[in-house]
Amino acid sequence: MKYQKKQDAIILLADGTIFYGKAVGNKQGTAFGEVCFNTGMTGYQEIFTDPSYYGQLMVATNAHIGNYGTNVDEVESDSIKIAGLIVKNFSYDYSREAADSSLEDFLDKNNLLAISDVDTRALVSYIRDHGAMNAVISTEVDNVEGLKKQLAEVPSMEGLELASQVSTKEPYYFGDENAAYKVAALDIGIKKNILRNIAERDVYIKVFPYNSKFEDLEAFNPDGYFLSNGPGDPEPLVEAQAVAKEIIKRDLPLFGICLGHQVIAIANGVSTYKMYNGHRGINHPVKNLKTGKGEITSQNHGFAVNREEAEANTDLEVTHVHLNDDTVAGLAMKSKNVFSVQYHPEASPGPHDSSYLFDQFIENIKK
Ligand SMILES: NC(=O)CC[C@H](N)C(=O)O
């Protein structure tokens, strides 16, 4: 086609579908992952550094990415965790008082491949119709057959254990050691803003690697336990499930977010499943069934807890539901001091409607 500028990057989906774009900054490379989309209008830096996105190629549905630059403090972990980025318009220029770098430099520093000028509306509606799948983004536009072969080797997200790839190698502390309470947090991909939210409620936190034993956490003598968010499928996380079971058995205060919520469900004998399309955005409506109130929430998950099984479990209560598709958004144990949510009360990015859940965790600790 005469009018079409020569495209220098492609997005090849596992089913063979191809979309075209341009490499941001004329970078060369190839990146594999599960393709997913986030509908947030803001918060790209927090999203790119959220460990829950490890192994995923992210499509931003907002038409402009990069226009407010980046800031060293607006990270949810020490590095970019998405596998690659797909956008419509990439802003090489930026404007914001608080910004200290361009998004282009930030991506370069993290060596991340990004593709711009993609028809992201067409791509997202295609993924919505055909479900989550693996994909590759590449500047090797003339090597489609080679890329197809390599893509076929990429494991499916279903059944994939990824917490070990992002968890801390050594335990560490967060907050003020003279705080009123102590919490042991199992890091299966924890976001920094969760630590900030817990610590600012007068809590000293010790963060443990994903494969720690209950006894390791217990040795900190905590008042409460926390299971974090994180990447991958919750089913293979047997070590984390074992920790959850021990905490539950002893009736100790426990709070779980996202992957942690899924692990708590599995520890209760309730299974999880891969969603056709996940929930990723900052305006997902949730209903709190205990208060009848709605919350606008930040979400990022591709798996969910089986609602029928959760409702059939006499010791579990479905406390929150997602209003778009009636999936489980929150759980509590009736006989234990244990609760969890599928969404992100720590926001970052997103609304703060659900920060009361951190207060509830502290109340449970006080009990
Ligand atoms: N944010 C999260 O913790 C995500 C949990 C899990 N990896 C999922 O995709 O469902």
UniProtKB/TrEMBL annotation:
Pfam families: CPSase_sm_chain, GATase. The keyword Oxidoreductase does not apply. Its EC number is 6.3.5.5. It catalyses: L-glutamine + H2O = L-glutamate + NH4(+); hydrogencarbonate + L-glutamine + 2 ATP + H2O = carbamoyl phosphate + L-glutamate + 2 ADP + phosphate + 2 H(+). Keywords: Amino-acid biosynthesis, Arginine biosynthesis, ATP-binding, Glutamine amidotransferase, Ligase, Nucleotide-binding, Pyrimidine biosynthesis. Gene3D superfamilies: 3.40.50.880, Carbamoyl-phosphate synthase small subunit, N-terminal domain. One of its GO terms (biological process) is L-arginine biosynthetic process. Transmembrane segments: none annotated. InterPro entries: Anth_synth/Amidotransfase (IPR050472), CarbamoylP_synth_ssu (IPR006274), CarbamoylP_synth_ssu_N (IPR002474), CarbP_synth_ssu_N_sf (IPR036480), Class_I_gatase-like (IPR029062), CPSase_GATase1 (IPR035686), GATASE (IPR017926). The keyword ATP-binding applies. CDD domains: GATase1_CPSase (cd01744). One of its GO terms (molecular function) is glutaminase activity. L-glutamine binds at residues 52, 230, 232, 259, 262, 300, 302-303. Residues 7-138 form the Carbamoyl-phosphate synthase small subunit N-terminal domain. Pathway: Amino-acid biosynthesis; L-arginine biosynthesis; carbamoyl phosphate from bicarbonate: step 1/1; Pyrimidine metabolism; UMP biosynthesis via de novo pathway; (S)-dihydroorotate from bicarbonate: step 1/3. Residues 1-181 are annotated as: CPSase. SMART domains: CPSase_sm_chain. The active site is at 258 (nucleophile), 344, 346. Composed of two chains; the small (or glutamine) chain promotes the hydrolysis of glutamine to ammonia, which is used by the large (or ammonia) chain to synthesize carbamoyl phosphate. Tetramer of heterodimers (alpha,beta)4. Belongs to the CarA family. Small subunit of the glutamine-dependent carbamoyl phosphate synthetase (CPSase). CPSase catalyzes the formation of carbamoyl phosphate from the ammonia moiety of glutamine, carbonate, and phosphate donated by ATP, constituting the first step of 2 biosynthetic pathways, one leading to arginine and/or urea and the other to pyrimidine nucleotides. The small subunit (glutamine amidotransferase) binds and cleaves glutamine to supply the large subunit with the substrate ammonia. This is Carbamoyl phosphate synthase small chain. It comes from Seonamhaeicola maritimus. The gene is carA.
